[in-house]
Give the backbone structure.
Amino acid sequence: MLPLILPVVLPLLAAFLVMPLARMSALIARALGPIVLTTSLVLLLPCCLDPPAQPLVLAIGNFAPPLGIVFYGDRLALLFANAVALFFLLFWDWRGGNPQQARQDALMLLLAASATGLALSGDLFNLYVFYELAAVASFGLVSLSGTGPALVATVRYLLVSAFGSVLALAGIALLYLQTGTLNLAQLGIDPEPLQGPAGLLAFGLMVIGFGVKAELFPLNYWVPEVYASAPARISALLAGLISKLAVLILLRLLVLVYGDTAAPQILLFLGILTIFFGEFSAWRAQDFPRMIAFSSIGQLGLVFIAFSLSGSWGVLAGIAVALHHLLVKSALFGLAHRWSGSLQALTGSAQRTPLAAALFVLFALSLIGVPPLPGFWTKILVLAGLAQEGSALAFTGLGAILLVTAVEAHYLFRFALQLYEKVENAPAGFRSFWEFLPSLLLGAALLAVTLRINPVADRLRAITQQAADRSFYITQVFPQAAAHRKDQP
Amino acid sequence: MNALDLLFLLSGATLLCALLFGRTRWAAPLLLLGYAAQFVALLQTNALFGEPISLSWSLVVLDQPMHWRYDALSWFFALITLGAGFLSTGYGSGVWMRDYERAGHSAGVLHTALAANVFSMVLLVGAEDFLSLFLGWELLNWATFFLMALRGGIAARAALRYLGYAFTGGMAILGAMALLYAQAGSLEFQPIRESLPQMSDGQLWVLLALLGSGFGIKMGLLPFHLWQAPAYAETPGPGSAFFSAVSARMGLYAMLVFFVGMVGLARLVQMEIPYTFLNGRDLLAWIAVFTIIFPTYTALQQQDARYLLAWHGIGQGGYMVLGVLVGTAEGSAGGLLHIFNHAITQVALLMAVFAVLYRTGTTDLNRLGGLVARMPLTFLTLLFGIISLAGLPPMAGFVSKLLVYRALLFEGMPLLFVGAIIGTLGTILSVYKLIHNIFLGQLRLEHESVQEAPLSMLIPMLSLSLLIFLAGYFPGPTLSWVAAVQAQLGLPVVNYHLGGVYDAHGGFNMIWIVSVLLAGFGIGALVFFGLGGPSKRVHQLDNYAGGHFLYAENRYQYSDHFYAGLMHLIGPWYRGSFQWLERALGSIVDFLAHFTNGFYGIAQPLLWSLAAVLGIAVWVF
Amino acid sequence: MRNLAAVLFIGGLGFFLFVLFFRLPLGAPPLVAGAAILEEGGETVGAANLVTAVLLAYRGMDTLGELSILFAAATAVGLVLGRRQLVVSDPEGGFILRAGSDLLFPLLLVVGLYVILHGHLTPGGGFQGGVILAAAFFVPVLARPRRGLDHGLLSFVEGLAGAAFIGIGLWALFARDAFLEPLLGKGVLGHLFSAGTLPLLSMAVGLKVGAELAGLMTSLMEAEGRES
Amino acid sequence: MALDFVSILYIGALGLLLLGTFGLVTTTHLFRLILALALAEAGVNLLLILSGYRGGAQPPILGFGPQDMPMVDPIPQALVLTAIVIGVGVQALAVAAAVRIYRRYGTLDLVALKAHLEGDLARKQGIAPPKSAEKPAGERPLSPVPPRPQEP
Amino acid sequence: MLETVALILVILVLSAGVLVLCLQSLMGAVVAASVVSLGVSVLFVLLRAPDVALTEAAVGAGLSTVVLALGLRKLGLWRIEGDRGEAHALVPTDRREREDA
């Protein structure tokens, strides 16, 4: 039985030890992070490639689920845990040389641990603690450059995140008041008490609470400032990975408890607003990081809309959009490492770095959904689901997505044409090949997925089938509950 | 490995070899060979008269099958595509390409773009379900954008404007596909054709709006036609010829497949517009008529030959839609025939104009003139082209326009007929301006030493002119193709013969008409050359007026801002024909962007978050 | 106008919260997980103070998460405040402060350690004891700012205490195949050395929290102020 | 709404939460925001403890009160312990950031800080300041802060 | 009896909360915040949660007040008497800023 706990605990151990170690020898301290991340990758990869039949349910401290905390490693959670280890290795600060290098590595490891915890944990308050850990670690990482804008962006981000966590805690209190338990599976056993207005208000508060990191509309005003002033590596991880994990929490709640209530409608409505505000502000963005920050808001709005669709179709569409956005957005932020200036200053930079410009065009094509690329299949999944939904809000969502994609295509290719303009003194390109290696690898992965779309789609359908199956989740965590559920219909 | 697989493979191979060997010296002959091979493979599929042939491979993605099938309609469009591709590559190889490379552009990229366009069109016309239709559609959109944006500067801006329109059209089609999927449970044509009758009129109106605007944008129907002229005019030579021939007609292909093939004209007629006597078909017909009128009269104002012809490309599209919408055997035959006739006409005209551009370096109508002596063969091509464009007897354009007019009159649609006639009047006026300002009138000093167009450009031009004349003289073969397409689309089939058409009102026979015309010309020529007195050859610049010798500098001939008077008269009626619509949309998007960006500028936006919490509480309660 | 809108929204939200909350069974919430812990908490973990039992045994992961949040906060503060002032500009404490701090230091130390060690018996535990230890180490810094605290040692203690906490957890993982499972037997309820590894865990927590908060307050103290 | 023990405390908890939220939403002074945040967190912690409180029960410490008396639910108390320490952690970070910002920009008012943020970012990224045509005609633009000594 | 104690404490806490938001001097607001924290910790005792009361008292009242006061000191918004000689009234500089802005 694979110790599912190690990928969370080892990075924490490394984080605690990195600061004292740095005093002794800088080399070990620098190498500690990558070693720990590769071990957790090695631990998790086999069970993601050929997934175990039954999900790995791990009760921490051998305490039965309702009492202790349970880690639920179904195929979806393992997929995200793998993604965390992989992407943190990809976007690790290999060159170092930062005066506070030990602190930065410690915070990166804490972020990695909390991300894995968010993916695996099956207890609501434990998810809240990991979410808060991810928040505090990202405050430190965002204020890394220490310049004025970085600090102001961090403070604004901190305030909205604290406001969100206060509301999330209120939601958890309301939920605990009604059900007396915090284990997700136990909440799902008899969700009737939570279907009422009080339960839905608890869900609403948690949507606002976890929506801060998931870049939901009224709470995502921190996104452009933070991604423009934070180092590109950190923005790549925050925009690509951590935001998806925040949405994963809401997905678990949605699938287990609030399946057929008014909750999906709320998500759909907020998703439409997020998409609308995200993409239209990107139209006026004047610098590269802010443009892709707004487009990441738009894409996450699409994820929210996808998850609001009923049944396993919604989960499939949402996870497809989320994974595609994870791939493309981190790669775009990888490019933003060198292209952090204004769009005008980047005119004609395709002459110096043709490969980077070609990568940008590839990612832009996939982002707006041009057929052979995977972006198209994810978008058609969402649109078909919305069309089947049939409600008036679903059709407005359909129209909004189409309109917004046209706007997105325009501003992305306005910049692409600028890249390919003929200019005498083209701006300096990427100094070394290593700088956009992550984007290159992710671009290759995107093309690989394009060629082998069918096997990837089947694997994804199997994952989401399992994730969307409510009673399967409950019987896994509470075997005896299955016995007593058999008798009552 | 049937003939269709061979066609697809060859098309892909041509694209690949354009990509790999585009820059080398013998790229052009290789590509010509590739297009010729594809042409032969197409003939082998024999999808026109024989049974429709389907591709042996079929993709299944996310349990959505995608397969391709060639039938008469696809064969007809593939024929035009490959013909246009072959001729424009031939036209663009050799001398023209060397000049293009000297201007700093790369030949390989142009060849690749052209080959990509042909490949995506071959893919599109074979689509058997909405998914492969959309795949081909998007590939075509992006290949067109790529070819348009090659020359950078104005071309890049025109290409970006095209992208805005094309992508919005693509999204409209995607929306319609989602609705169809929800309605019919699958994106195949067959299940959709079965589920269409159960659809209510409201749903059909939504589909008409979405798919109509999606395909209409590509075709340049009225409200969405502003992007086409600058985009097609600014594309490099062969690309512009190729686009004007067939690229816009892909929208018509898709319209034919959906509105005529699946929905059926009868159903369109039943879709009444409440409180008006119009129905679905009338609405589309009136849009087609206005598409004929507005762009043609905008063409009248143009000062650049390429823009003038590009605006005409939009106008002529209206005839095709009008013809098909009439629905009778003659009308649809005229519409479908006009696709072919207009393709060869437009390509010939643009080749001639680009030949002039190649030789004199400008296509500005106010700085040309008197080239008939210097470039006689180009003049001949342009003459044949404009006669066919205006729809006058000896040439091909006349046959299809006559069919459309006869159908309009016999079906009792006089107002539409009058609109079409006004359009033709505008065409005649503007084509005369074209040929007068370039070839007739006083030669300019700087064009004294202009040569005839090089051979590599002349061959495609002259062969096209011959084709235009023959298609006009013996419309039989082209009408046979059109009849096969009508049979496949389920329209009443026109009964044709070598010279023309029989119908209830007697029909017409082009052989007689053209022979009488030629006879008349013959007598006129005899009288002019035979009986006239001895004529003395005079050098073009040796001119006298009122006893004074006219030096070449002073212009004694009216060639600046041709039709200025007419423009003064009818100019105020139409400003820029729907420029206001585009500006309005642009400003709405800018305003929304400004509004949303404002949210991200607020210093303390937690109030909005609190409002969201309250909203959820109210929603939940 | 903004304040008016804020008042309106707060009023609306308050109304909904009150209505919803007062419809629920306030006085007697449904006890599911809590009831199970109340009856068998004493036997399985052997700790008299059930809250500490929940904190360190049942929901050990939360406490580990909590520790790392505090660690992240302290590291982030270190990152943000960056350069420390070489010469601390604050004045020397007055005589009363210096004498008081010398007197208080051992007293606070004893109280802190007492609270940590008796965490599993009486109310208190790792966090509360840690804070008292932090206060114990911070008072001399207040009195004599020149001497300050040795940040190297603090981060060393902090790192080791955190590693000890996780070490105990991993030891339980290898011994009993379950992370953070209480080991070393339960002992007699109410005695000092009872409830297995709980006292060790609370000691680790106490030291870590103490070192972190002391480091945090000192770095805040030494940060370069604004001299206006 | 009988004024019994629990409902008074619920009013207190919700009141604190709403006060904190009101403070967070209206003020723009960074330091007051941190205080309002502390208020809101105190309110929520009270709420969480109340959700575990059962009337007439004794604290969850074995061996003190009479055996038969029912005990209060220990789980929310463990949660609140964690929540309080999270609150202080975040608060300390906020104060540290406020100190650095005040040293860098000389003001704690979020409106001025937002203007500085946009200005510095635009300067760093080389975006030209908006031409007068686009800027709203209304009030005159913010007077630029006197140039502070640039950090090394 | 318990109700009256609880009522008094809740009133105390709420009024201190209002004071936190309304007081002009930042130091006063910090003190009001620590009063709120103390009040809440006593409420925790009433609610049979001694652990949490101890934590709230030590961490909430103690630590956060110290951190806030240190912050104020570093911001130069509050001066201790005899701070390098120039006696400086407890005038929050942000109000002074508003006057001369």
User: Anything to note?
Assistant: Chain C has one domain: 2-222. Residues 151-176 of chain C form the longest helix (26 residues). DSSP finds eight helices and no strands in chain C.
